[in-house]
Amino acid sequence: MTGLTGIDKDGLTDLQTKAIEDPSTGRKTLKAVTSCEGGFRNLTQIRSLEPVLVSEPCSLLGDDAAPNPSEMALAALGSCISVGLLANATDRGVTLTKIEVAMEGDIDISAVWGVGDTPDTKVPGFTEVRCHITLAGDADSDTLDSIRTNAMLWSPVVNTFSRNVTMDSTLTVE
Q: For residue 135, how many other CB atoms are within 10 A of its CB?
């Protein structure tokens, strides 16, 4: 059984120790800047990485060149859960040979970005997200389920999806 490429256990222990000794070390401000290329094509710059393309499918008047924003939200959710699964497994000394997070979400897009069906009772966005997690490794099913439960409980993106978040916007006119 060949395990997935793991993470640095000592580095994980250092992060744990720092977070316990000074919880403020875990509080960060993340930044991203999105610029429209035209149509529904957007490039998002994060740190000094290559920009990420986000678009819309043809059925939503896009060019189908990249995932749409809601699909990217599901991708962020699945990736965050996967990171948590690997971190929890590493912390417990479990070697995982497979992590797969399959997600699907029910979404109402009839508001068409605020220009379609927009009664006051409309709640846009995901109304339900289902995650199916597949794990394989050198642990029994109870241990793997405990890893899953803890990863879901402490995932920042799971918590962003499942609780209210304060949102603010400002406008600069050029």
A: 22
Residue 143 to residue 124: CA distance in whole angstroms: 37
Distances (CA, A) of 115 to 74, 106, 111, 126, 148: 24, 20, 6, 18, 40
Can you tell me the distance from the alpha carbon of 60 to that of 40, in angstroms, rounded to the nearest whole number? 9
Query: For residue 110, how many C-alpha atoms fall within 13 Å in the half-sphere facing its CB?
Result: 8
Rounded to whole angstroms, the maximal C-alpha distance in the chain is 59
CA distance 84 to 10: 16
The dihedral sign for the CA sequence 24, 75, 159, 133: negative
* Reported pTM: 0.87
Q: What angle do CA 85, 160, 145 make, to 5 degrees?
A: 25
The answer to whether 57 and 70 have CB atoms below 8 angstroms apart is: no
- pLDDT for 101-158, tens place per residue? 999 999 988 887 777 888 888 888 899 999 999 999 999 999 999 999 999 999 999 9
